[in-house]
Amino acid sequence: MSLARPRIRFTSVMLVMGLLFLYVPMLVLVVYSFNASKLVTVWSGFSTQWYGELFRDEQILSAIWMSLRIAFLSASMAVCLGTIAAFVMTRYGRFRGKTALSTMVTAPLVMPEVITGLSLLLLFVQMAQITGWPADRGMATIWIAHTTFCSAYVAVVVAARLREIDPSIEEAAMDLGSPPMKTFFCVTLPVIAPALVAGWLLAFTLSLDDLVIASFVSGPGANTLPMVVFSSVRMGVSPKINALATLIILTVSLATLLAWYLMRRNEAKRQQALKGAVP
Q1: Is 177 left (phi over 0), alpha (psi -120 to 50) or beta?
Q2: What's the pTM value of the predicted model, to 2 decimals?
Q3: Residue 83 in contact with residue 158, Cβ under 8 Å?
Q4: Measured on CA atoms in the order 192, 198, 202, 204, is the torsion positive or negative?
C-alpha cells in the first residue's frame, strides 16, 4: 500500500513566491550593508564601517530629524482635520455642497503627486507675493503640504469606522443627560480610537516617505530624508544608504512586533474577562 504524496497547492506556491519577491531584495540589502567594499554590488568582506560613516554624516542625520518632525506634526494635524471631515461626511444630513465637499476631501487620494506639488508651489508663491508669507519655503511649507494630502487618508479611515458605529449608543448617552461634547469624548472617541491610531500611523508613513511633493514645496536648506537619499542615489549608491535602509527595516520590524504583542496581550485579557463573566 503506497502512501499518497502530499499535494502542493497552487495558492501555497503563489504565497511563497510573493513572500520571496517582497523580502529577498530586503535581505540582500541587509547583507550588503555589512559589505566592506565601497561598491555595493561587490562583496569584499564583513564590516560595520558604513554604520559608523552613517552616524557621522551630518546631512543624513539632519534630514532624518527634519523628516521625523514633519511626519509627526503632519500626522497629528491630519488626524484632527481628517476626523472633522469624516464627521461631516458621515454624521451630518443632506446639505447643499455635501457631495462637492466629499469629493474635494478625497481628491488627493487619486490626484497625481506632481499636480498636487505644483499646485501647492504656485499657492505658496502667490501667498508670498500678496502677504509676504512664506518668505522662504522650508519646514513649514512641507508640513502644510503633507497635512493637505494626509488628511484625505485619515478622513477615509475614520469615516469607514464611523459608518460602523450604531448611532443609538450615542443617542442613549445623550438621553441619559450626557452633553454632546462629553458624549464624543467618553463614547465616540474610545470607539474610533483604533481608526485614529491607524490613520495617524498611515499619515506618518506617507509623510516620511514622500519625495515628489516635498521636492516642490521645499527650499534651500530644507531637505527631507527621501530627498537626500534620492540625490545621493543619483550620483551612485553609497553603502551608507544600505545601512540606513537596514536600520529603518529593523525599526519597522520591532514596532510591528511590539504592536502585535500588545494586541495579542489585550485580546488574551479580553478572552479571560469574557470567560470570567460567563457563569
Answers
A1: left
A2: 0.85
A3: yes
A4: positive
